[in-house]
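Module 6 notes. Inverse folding takes a fixed backbone as the condition and produces residue identities as the prediction. Think of it as a translation problem where the source language is geometry and the target language is the twenty amino acids. Below is one complete input and output pair. Work through it position by position during the lab.
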């Protein structure tokens, strides 16, 4: 492979394309689940495991591989994960059975680790004055890719069949591998130590035990023995994991760092923002597709409802790519709070003015602006608040909390909306209003938490205590 001179712009392009390949896969399968169900002759409930498998694999892989990247080198780990995702795309395209397709979705879900690894790589290769903008743009790509997957899945499936929808992320993943090899140098600080296997097993266990019932509880019944039993197992494993981490000399996740005033408010806010994001964004197309015979629905088709999300995508991308410039004027924590408030405002707008497509598209645009600000600033705050050799695990934990939040938001919205259906089987408008206003309140709470809990700068004899060398972004320890 010829040697290409390193440039931050080239490195960013390689990382961004690689992340886009994975971002597309987040929601790509959801719209084509009915086609998968018909093709394999299985129930929709069974076919939905293609999405659940991705969610669980991503949740487990994100913190574990983020930590491995900190220890073994982020570039090599990033390339290995991209390779696994590309294999998953191939297997999914040719899967002969549902079981093989679910396996492929697990391989694709491993790619969830690309997000924290990408933020760590950006910290390694970008000049300090460009870091916030690069993280913001990458966060925007993650959000845009997730939404684009929902919008593109239908048209792609119509042209290529449901198997063909994996061609686009596969091409992007292969291109990302080649560009990363050529344009991203091996650089950055490495952590010392090893992966704590016991902690990794406990963490994986409670994530699986929590996310499976959150994803399937609406179908199983929230009070069914299986649902309640898995929640109980998750609670027990969480306690065991916390105890193991606090007692370990080499914890997988430094819980004391996570409990610092610099980090925990941002992580709690990420959980609440994730719930609001997917509880509203994920259900807005269904809201738009509600038949006009309901008395309040617009009765849009699938493709029209997808196009109605364009203002949301435009708002998200515009703000995300402008984060670097905005951060020069607005502090990151204030930016995150403003984003959460805009998300809440967009939801409230949709609840109280939903009679026309223009009003709902406007609400989506406001919501998109909020997501763009919140996602970009969250990642930047975490990156700037931890030592360089713990960037992967810290951003991985934050991403996981947002994933858990999205599962909670989706489960909550499903329970409320479809728990109050009209006689004809159509969800009642009041169900959407209750669910969405509750999620909006959560977004407001996220803004309050981020602004109210300010980090304290620890000093030693009155001087700041840097956690990194001078050529890295300045970070101060803020452990309570």
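Target side of the pair, the amino acids:
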């Amino acid at each position: 492979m010829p040697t290409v001179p390193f440039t931050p712009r080239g490195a960013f392009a390689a990382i961004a394309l690689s992340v886009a390949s994975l971002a597309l896969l987040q929601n790509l399968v959801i719209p084509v689940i009915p086609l998968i169900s018909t093709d394999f002759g299985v129930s929709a409930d069974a076919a939905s495991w293609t999405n659940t498998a991705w969610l669980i694999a991503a949740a487990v892989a994100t913190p574990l591989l983020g930590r491995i990247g900190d220890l073994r080198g982020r570039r090599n780990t990033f390339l290995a994960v991209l390779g696994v995702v590309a294999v998953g795309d191939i297997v999914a395209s040719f899967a002969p059975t549902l079981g093989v397709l679910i396996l492929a979705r697990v391989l694709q879900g491993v790619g969830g680790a690309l997000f924290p690894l990408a933020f760590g790589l950006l910290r390694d290769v970008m000049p300090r004055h460009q870091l916030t903008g690069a993280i913001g743009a990458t966060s925007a790509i993650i959000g845009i890719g997730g939404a684009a997957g929902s919008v593109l899945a239908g048209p792609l499936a119509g042209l290529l069949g449901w198997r063909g929808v994996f061609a686009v992320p596969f091409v992007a993943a292969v291109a990302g591998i080649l560009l990363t090899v050529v344009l991203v140098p091996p650089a950055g600080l490495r952590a010392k130590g090893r992966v704590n296997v016991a902690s990794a097993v406990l963490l994986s266990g409670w994530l699986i035990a929590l996310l499976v019932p959150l994803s399937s509880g609406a179908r199983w019944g929230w009070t069914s023995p299986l649902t309640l039993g898995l929640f109980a197992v998750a609670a027990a494993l969480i306690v065991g994991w916390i105890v193991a981490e606090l007692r370990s000399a080499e914890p997988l996740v430094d819980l004391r760092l996570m409990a610092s005033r610099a980090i925990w408010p941002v992580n709690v806010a990420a959980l609440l923002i994730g719930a609001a994001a997917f509880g509203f964004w994920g259900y807005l197309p269904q809201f738009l597709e509600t038949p006009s015979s309901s008395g309040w629905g617009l009765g849009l088709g699938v493709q029209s409802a997808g196009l109605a999300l364009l203002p949301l995508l435009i708002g998200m991308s515009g703000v995300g790519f402008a984060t670097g410039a905005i951060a020069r004027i607005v502090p990151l924590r204030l930016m995150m709070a403003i984003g959460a408030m805009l998300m809440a405002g967009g939801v409230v707008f949709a609840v109280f003015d939903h009679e026309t497509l223009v009003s709902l598209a406007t609400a989506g645009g406001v919501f998109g602006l909020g997501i763009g600000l919140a996602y970009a600033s969250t990642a930047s705050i975490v990156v700037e608040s931890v030592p360089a050799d713990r960037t992967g695990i810290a951003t991985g934990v934050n991403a996981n909390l947002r994933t858990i939040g999205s599962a909670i938001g989706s489960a909550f919205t499903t329970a409320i909306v479809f728990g109050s259906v009209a006689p004809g089987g159509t969800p009642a408008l009041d169900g959407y209003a209750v669910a969405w206003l509750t999620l909006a309140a959560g977004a407001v709470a996220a803004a309050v938490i981020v602004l109210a809990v300010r980090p304290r700068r620890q000093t030693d004899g009155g001087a700041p205590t840097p956690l990194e060398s001078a050529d890295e972004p300045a970070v101060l320890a803020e452990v309570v």
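Reference fact for the lab report: Residues 458-480 have pLDDT under 50 and may be disordered.
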